[in-house]
Amino acid sequence: MVNLIWVFMTVFGVVFAIFNGTMNEVNEAVFSGAKEAVTLCIGLISILVFWLGMMRIAEDAGMLKILAKLFRPLVKRLFPEIPNDHPAMGYILSNMMANMFGLGNAATPLGIKAMEEMRQLNGGSNEASRSMITFLAINTSSLTLIPTTVIAIRMNYNSANPTDIVGTTLIATLCSTIGAILIDRFFYYRRSRKG
Amino acid sequence: MGIVSVISLWFIPVLIAFILMYGTFKRVPTYESFVEGGKEGVKIAVSIIPFLVGMLVAISVFRASGALDFLMGFIRPGLEALGIPADIAPLAIIRPISGTAALGMTSDIMATHGPDSFIGRLAATIQGSTDTTFYVLTVYFGAVGIKKMGDALKVGLLADFVGIIAAIVVVTVVFGG
After folding, report:
1. Of A1, A70, A100, A178, which residue is 20 to 30 A from A64 by alpha carbon distance?
2. Is A146 within 8 Å of B11 when comparing Cβ atoms?
3. Is the pLDDT of residue B1 over 60?
């Protein structure tokens, strides 16, 4: 999918330039685009290093575990199929907490673990269970508390106040997560009515 | 909407102070932990360079040739009737498909319109408030060998749609259109 879009943008751009007489601009764009990408990544290093460093302290201090405990009663309601002390619940909670703190790299292995446990609960079937769909719906709606990368990009382009989108992002994330949960429930009830 | 701005301003510094105090209280070797975590930041930033170079070159060519404006001309009237800035459409389409491609588009929007413009803030909010649905589904289902995804893709994409609408509404209310 990405391959198609990528090739389409480049090839369509070049072909369009032939008819539009903008080949000169396209030539420049190839080099300026590449240069901008590298500059951007170098700029990202500063905030990524700082934030992931902070998050490591939070993790080592056991903050993620405490948060996981706090959220347990709420999350249990989202996954009625998973028994109380099943390891799947622990992995789901840790995955959510890691996501909230923007620790994508830590979240993925935990999420995969959670999926393995849920598959076993589902008798090892190769079909997605109800809990799996709920789990993925929540994951795809993003749970980020602090959009580190976005802040870094805004700093790069000299924003007057790079963090002023934290509030709007939080509200939008909340909406999309609640939306994901409701949509998931809707599809579940539709499935179960069909039998 | 003063509260949202105050939260935005205070959230990060207060969180940093809290993490450092809590870490010290729990006897975490704070500085060493910080450095260990930070190393990962360097790795991530360097590893996304090829993704961004590829995507930004494609977007730059697409834009510089005039093709983007040409195509946007078709959908602009429809979107603007709904109050949606047309320049956000490509980002909204690519966000669920590729995270790094979306990151490239977000930075392109900020370079073109400025990070503090309405559309710059909207792009930032969309980028931060939804995730790459296709990637998440592929990685998680692929890793444990689930062949039948059920309603997962539908649910994920609909949730992305809700997130993008929410972002447009929230940014319009907080920062004005």
Report:
1. A178
2. yes
3. no
Per-residue pLDDT at B4 exceeds 80: no
CB contact under 8 A, A2 and B36: no
Residue for token pair 């997560």 = A177
Q: Which is it for the CA torsion B28, B32, B36, B42, positive or negative?
A: positive
CA A68, B138, B143 angle in degrees (round to 5)?
70
Whole-number Å distance between alpha carbons of B16 and B102: 28
Task: Give the gyration radius of chain B's Cα atoms.
Answer: 20
Q: Which of A128, A43, A76, A150 is nearest to B148 (CA)?
A: A128
Phi, psi for B115 (deg, rounded to 5): -70, -25
- Per DSSP (E only), the strands in chain B are none
Question: Residue A85 is encoded by which pair of tokens?
Answer: 């002390």
- H helices within A21-157, ranges in order? 23-60, 63-78, 87-100, 104-121, 130-140, 148-156
Among A16, A36, A158, the residue with its CB nearest the CB of B56 is: A36
- Token pair belonging to A177: 């997560």
Angle CA B54–B58–B64, to nearest 5? 140
Residue that has been written with the tokens 């205070």 in this structure: B10
From chain B, pick out residues whose CB is under 8 angstroms from the CB of A34: 53, 56-57
Inform me whether the pLDDT recorded for B85 exceeds 60.
Answer: yes
